[in-house]
Amino acid sequence: MLTGNESAELVVLSLLSEGASYGYQLTKDAAARSEGHLRLTPGVLYPLLRQLENEGLITSSWDTVRAEDAEDAGEGRKRKWYRLSPKGKRRLGQRVAAYESLRRVIDAFVGVRPREEGTR
Amino acid sequence: MIARPESAAGGSSLDRAGEPDSRSEPASIAAWLHALSRRMNVPASERQAVCDELDAHLCQRVQELMLCGLSEAKATADAIEELGEADELAGRYTQAYSHPRRRRIMQIGMLGIAGAAVVTAIVTFNGPGSVIPSSAFQPAREEPPEALRDIRVTADLSLRWDDFFQAIGQGAKLPVFVHWPQLRAIGGEMPTISPDNGIGVDLQGFALDAAITMLNDHANLTDDMGLAYRVQDGRIIFSSQAFFDRQETVLVTYDLTAAIGARKSDIEDGATTHEVVDSIKQLVTSLVHPDLWAENGGDLARMQTYGTKLFVSAPSRLQPKVQWVLAEMATAGPKDHAVPGAGANIGDRQMRVFPLKHVAAGETLGVIRSLQSLQPVDFTKATSDPGTNSIIVQGSADLLALVGAAIDAIDRPATQDRKPVSMLDPRFQIRAAGDGGLVIRASDGTELRCEELNIDPEAGMQAVPVGAKGERVPMLGDLPILNNLFTTPARAVPLRELPRE
Questions:
Q1: I want to staple B40 with a disulfide (CB 3.0 to 4.6 A). Which of B90, B151, B414, B499 is the partner?
Q2: How far away is chain A from the Cα of B202, in angstroms, using its nearest Cα?
Q3: Is-contact B265 B334, C-beta < 8 A?
Q4: Is A78 within 8 Å of B57 when comparing Cβ atoms?
Q5: Last residue of a domain, which of B65, B98, B131?
Q6: Would you state the pLDDT for residue B191?
Q7: ipTM surpassing 0.90, yes or no?
């Protein structure tokens, strides 16, 4: 489960790089992609989306969703769609590169076996 | 398309008084959204958008849970619970709206956190007795100008911002200029600093810097984005930190040869130099005020590389940190991977930032450059940062210790006992010593024998003393800098402090 925006931002930008999406779908995609290990809680996701939009990293638009079995064309439910902006694409590239740098650093340590006693 | 739960249909519209439209929503969702709306400190137009989006989420979630077999009441309760406490969520939204570029350092990305961890590791493993290695960056305190140093700010939270600034000016006996447009812009759509708004914080006897930190914190602003001040042309100027940063932007080039050389093993493993340079840039923009870099969406700092040169255009307060990070990277590789030439001894060299409290960094750098005993120091790689009033020097640990001692001797507060020493002062007499040296004699009989006098119009005048047997007398303990150019008493040394032969 993600508790920090630092990881959530990377995940959200990555998901949006694959196409437009909306909040609820993002939570589902994150869970599905991680086989349930990653849960973008709505309490973290929606303020983060607002922040990313404020920073110009994503753009948004509204459309109206109507029930399939609705008999009339009355008022439906609004849905806010998000898309990755060019600036967001650059940010994602940086985040990915930073993550890969970090992974290389960590790999250099986790592969080290403890020294046997008596050896120098 | 997914059908909306029957009882949840109807949208999240708020009436003019901000009350939920109870005719079309189940009470729990409506009440929760209403509670959230009241707690969010965001523009009214945005509250509706937030509620619409969350309403859509809740409805979809309720429907999904009902498909799993939950009753509508239980599904609604669970969906709301997943969103968390209204207070907490409202706080997150308020923070998200607070400034377009405002993000916490914690949000800079994994590398930033890893970088900090690496720095911590360097500090931790530097050896016993050396909790803070000499090569660690020491954030320089920006000392308030003397006129403001002793001010203590006491103010009621209802005090108007305009009155607050004027009171500071009266306390310091300096005129005040306030960049209101800049300060209003700090809050984006929610200006918090405007003439008639209250400051919002009770301040009791705070130093000015501490008061400003508290005010910024109260307004949910980082130091990079909040209120700041400078004293320029005898006036206190209050504006945004971003405004001053733009004024104080400088272009600096850094040689990446050593930092790239430290990654030689990566290059041998197939990484290209371009990739290594990119990773170096990533580390800098992740660690040094990440919000300000164009690479991260900021607009105050940017960098470009040309070959092994890194050009950094950034506020002067960032440059020492950039320099420190690059120097640390240069020492990150194995010793046997050191680059011949410019980086050959980089593993033995360190960089240190010396923050100064009482004297100007630029002038002090000029003084220590002229010290004979510090000639082994490569001052071509030294610089001063007026923004943080600090001096950055590279060299071996021993030489840096000497530099530190010299700076300590110079960086002293002005006292009544210390008077300017001028070679033009009639109290001093200079005569030939007969052996090619010189003797400087003060009116109190103190004499200093010198083998030479170095006169540098830019750096001041320096006497190099010799002992009775002609040996060079160590200078740094007594710092016999005789200086007829400096005008601030704090930088002068009374002759009676000089060693007798």
A1: B90
A2: 30
A3: yes
A4: no
A5: B98
A6: 57
A7: no
